[in-house]
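Recall from the previous chapter that SMILES is a line notation for molecules. Here it describes zinc ion.
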Amino acid sequence: MSKESSKKISAAPSWLGLTQDRLSFVFLPNRAETVRKIFQLAIGGMGSYAIANYLDELKVPTFTQSLNWDNATIDSMLRNRATYGEYQPKSFAGGHKRGIPSGHPISGYYPAVIDKTTFDAAQAARQQNLAHRGRKGNDLANIFGDLCLCAYCGSKVIFHRISNVQVLVCEQVLSDGACSRSAWTYKDFEITVLAFLAHPALLGQAGDELKAGLLDLVQEIKGLSSDQERRYARRVNITVLLKRIVAGLVIHSAGNLSLPRHSSAQIRKDITGRFLEIQLQGGPSYPCISIG
Ligand SMILES: [Zn+2]
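With both inputs in hand, we obtain:
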């Protein structure tokens, strides 16, 4: 084997290119930007299926001949330490097809497209996402994710269907625990919260960081009604932005209630007087009544 050929690189991660002589990597800015977007969406709580749909809807080119993104590609990219430049030497002894890690990882081997902090944040978000929604869960049915809490008992308020109507209801109620058997129609809730967050008066009171997120949110909400084609991508962006802007949503689904309703009672929807408290990230908390 000549000295030169031993230095040649056999393969590069899909988001990097190789020079003609195959001696070094080429950084591809457009692909790097796509990888960064994928990590950003994962950190925002999106699963790999939702990310694939998002990229397809916006017609973001894949890194192969394939016309569409698939979730397995995105999953393996999100786990790949080469994204922040690390190379793990592998041994193929004993007929291992994919190789097994051998020796210490080498940092700075590949041109990094993200940093290690971003990589770690994505791993944490994926763990949380899998625990809450399962692998194939529809991330966009409830754009509030796990932000909703019950004002009466402190449990999570979760997305549920009652006779085919989508509602938010305290998880204690679904497990026959002692809490108010009242639910908030999801559609009404979403309209109420988004209208509150998009209100100009809120912008005036927000600090710089929050303001930037709120301005982006307003753009996406406006776009939802004017641009039907990018509806999915806009809801993905809104979901990610909500996580940045909102610390929690405390739901009083039966208004000012002192005693829980009896545990055999039927679940009542959209009780007059229902309201929520919107807690902003690093900021104050606001009461908000249904506009439905
Ligand atoms: Zn409750």
